[in-house]
Design brief:
By secondary structure, the protein is an alpha+beta fold. It contains eleven helices and 38 strands.
């Protein structure tokens, strides 16, 4: 459980909130206490964009009414809700225990007997859900809690009344892509057979540690689900044929050919029994092992050491739970695999080379790339890291004829690498940003004023934003930074234009119409805007560059203040919008310094006077990450103290949405003039 953040409510209905449990398909989930006896419950608060939709409220009320009837051993019961509240909410029973995802990723896959029992329990739970006229729509390992009395299916937040229209925009699938049925991916009407398909995916994951349609990115996952057979090669040798056939049948593309739940119960019954009805599941969490130390994409965990007796033993469920397995609850957050606490060796198995910056603490995990990395950004769910790379040698001037580039994407948990390419010879990606909902990736190009919008579900370009008509073909431009407004409707593009004199440039795009709505050209100086950021309320924009830090009021459409007069390399708003962090340009004789300014009146304090070129606030605003000539550091904002993770220069920095992981790379690859092709993932000190 994570602590409540500054903007989180402290009470929902009669329930007092104690912390954050995770995020579900349509909202945030909190740990709450009942007003009388103080019993723990899971409280789900619906996202504002759904709450504003009257049709959603009507459908949500019907689904809550139906979900309250769901019972049985293998579900988490809905006990309270208020669909008419300003922010609709729902309360379910709190289920203590690790999720199936945590169990499998934290150790070995389940053995065949445990998979058989898991399948019976989940089939029974789905039967209870379907009997009430509901379809779950998001059955996945993170929504299966391995409780003491058997597995529990959780998160009814995106369940759908049978034969009802979808809650969301027409054609928009709801759920988790890697565990969706083909019909669900296509945005078609869902039914019980779609949950059966997801059940097959879950059982394959439980048995092998990987999903049958896993791929490095969403477009590849969608392609496999729609057009390719399931990949079950990860099932262990000797895995029972009847279980393999059951999983395969559940994953049939034609929903009419998938088995009914009653048949699944029969086929998961123990071989000594003639009926599986009413089977009570006692799946045992397996032995936990070390995390992988290889940097090869897709490398799995090291095998657990064999006991001296030669017989491999598993601890009991009670041993694992009492040994520190975190309690999970409704809509648990999908896990990101981290390295062990205190592990000192280089995860890549590579010996330290003379002259390379040395980590100050545990060595980072490495994401191995194919081309040099100039910047990177995490997806909103933290699962994917995206790095645009426009040149093999990262020269300053992209003038060579035929230069092109690609977008590298890593699955953070598995470290698998994939790429997106545009096809155009002059595609020179240098900076990228995700839309708030994670569905769109905006990519800025070097040596061009164009910005390309990619649909992350299909891997296709949906639009290209280009200002050449405004600034003329004789003007050369460069995109340095991109930022989405909090509502996702506006894109800010910061950079430079050159003809006879250099100018910093900031443009705002209305994405609903693919046209610019405002333009700022700072013509009284030479130079660039390096970074742009929206305030959390979306009313202000801060831009950092060679002229300093400027604040732009979106309503009045003019620069309201100069918050810094010296050249600035980076700027960031605190989560509450009250503080503006910036750093002096980290190059030249007067380089260095981190400034914290009151966003309203400009009063400033300093954290350091050393060379810094990037700053990022943590989600709670209590810490600030920085990188540059002063090394990679995490600052306690209140105390003004820093923890140094590594020394040496790094030119970019990305922070995961949960604030637990930093991504960066060395300024130059060892024994090379090129930027490093590797991304380093650092665990943020807590």
């Amino acid at each position: 459980m994570d602590p409540l953040q500054p903007g989180d409510p402290r009470r929902i209905g009669p329930y007092r909130l104690e912390g954050r449990l995770g995020a579900g398909g349509m909202g945030q989930v909190f740990l709450g206490l009942t007003p009388g006896g103080g019993r723990k419950v899971a409280v789900k608060l619906i996202r504002p964009d759904y709450a504003m939709n009257p049709r959603f409220r009507e459908r949500f009320a019907l689904e809550v009414q139906a979900a309250r009837r769901v019972g049985g051993f293998h579900t988490a019961q809905v006990i309270d809700a208020d669909p008419a509240a300003e922010a609709p909410w729902m309360v379910t029973a709190f289920i203590s225990g690790p999720s199936l995802q945590d169990v499998v990723l934290g150790g070995d896959p389940l053995d065949p007997d445990a998979v058989r029992e898991l399948g019976a329990g989940l089939a029974e739970g789905l039967g209870a859900i379907h009997a009430c006229g509901l379809v779950h729509r998001d059955l996945k390992p993170g929504n299966v809690i391995m409780a003491d009395d058997g597995p529990r299916i959780i998160d009814f937040g995106i369940a759908q009344v049978g034969n009802a229209s979808a809650l969301t925009t027409t054609g928009a699938p709801v759920g988790t892509y890697a565990f969706m049925s083909p019909e669900q991916v296509r945005g078609e009407e869902v039914g019980p057979a779609d949950d059966v398909f997801s059940l097959g995916c879950v059982l394959a994951f439980a048995a092998s540690g990987q999903g049958p349609f896993d791929a490095p990115n969403i477009p590849a996952i969608v392609r496999r689900i729609l057009d390719e057979p399931p990949r079950l090669d990860g099932l262990p040798d000797g895995f029972p044929r009847e279980l393999r056939e059951l999983i395969t049948d559940c994953l049939t593309k034609d929903r009419a050919q998938r088995p009914e739940l009653a048949e699944i119960l029969r086929r998961t019954a123990p071989s000594s029994s003639s009926s599986g009805t009413g089977t009570r599941v006692e799946a045992q969490p397996p032995t936990r092992t070390r995390m992988p130390t290889s940097t090869e994409p897709g490398t799995g965990p090291d095998p657990a050491p064999e006991p001296d007796s030669g017989e491999r033993r598993r601890p009991t469920r009670r041993t694992v739970l009492l040994g520190g397995a975190a309690a999970a609850a409704v809509a648990a957050v999908p896990a990101v695999v981290f390295w062990p606490e205190g592990e000192k060796e280089n995860p890549g198995g590579e010996k330290e080379k003379p002259g390379r910056p040395r980590p100050k603490g545990p060595a980072p995990r490495l994401l191995k790339g194919k081309v040099p990395v100039a910047s990177a950004v995490f997806s909103p769910d933290g699962r994917t890291l995206v790095a645009p790379s426009y040149r093999p040698d990262m020269e300053d001037e992209p003038d060579d004829e035929g230069d092109s580039g690609c977008i590298q994407l890593w699955d953070v948990a598995t470290r698998r690498l994939s790429t997106l390419t545009h096809g155009a010879a002059d595609f020179l990606p240098c900076v990228a940003v995700f839309s708030p909902d994670g569905k769109t990736l905006a990519v800025g190009s070097a040596g061009s004023d164009s910005v390309t919008l990619w649909n992350m579900a299909t891997g296709r370009v949906t639009a290209t934003l280009n200002h050449k008509a405004d600034i003329g073909d004789d003007v050369w431009s460069w995109t340095n930074s991109l930022a989405y407004s909090p509502d996702g409707r506006t894109l800010a593009v910061a950079g430079s234009t050159w003809n006879t004199a250099g100018q910093g440039q900031l443009r705002l795009w209305d994405l609903s119409r693919s046209r610019p709505v405002a333009t700022i050209l700072e013509g009284d100086h030479e130079g660039s805007f390096y970074t742009v950021a929206f305030s959390p309320d979306g009313r202000s924009i801060a831009a950092a560059g060679e002229s300093g830090v400027r604040l732009w009021d979106r309503r009045r459409r003019h620069v309201t203040a100069a918050r810094q007069s010296t050249a600035a390399a980076s700027v960031a708003f605190s989560p509450d919008g009250r503080t503006l962090a910036s750093c002096d340009s980290a190059y030249g004789e007067n380089s260095g310094g981190i400034w914290l300014r009151d966003a309203a009146n400009g009063r400033a304090t300093t954290l350091t006077d050393k060379g810094v070129n990037t700053v990022r606030f943590s989600p709670d605003g209590k810490s600030l990450a920085s990188t540059g000539e002063d090394g990679l550091k995490v600052w306690d904002v209140a105390a003004g103290r820093a923890t140094e993770l590594a020394d040496g220069t790094r030119y970019w920095l990305a922070l995961s949405p949960d604030g637990r992981t930093l991504a960066t790379s060395e300024a130059r690859a060892p024994k090379s003039k090129r930027n490093s092709t590797d991304v380093q993932l650092w665990k943020v000190p807590q």
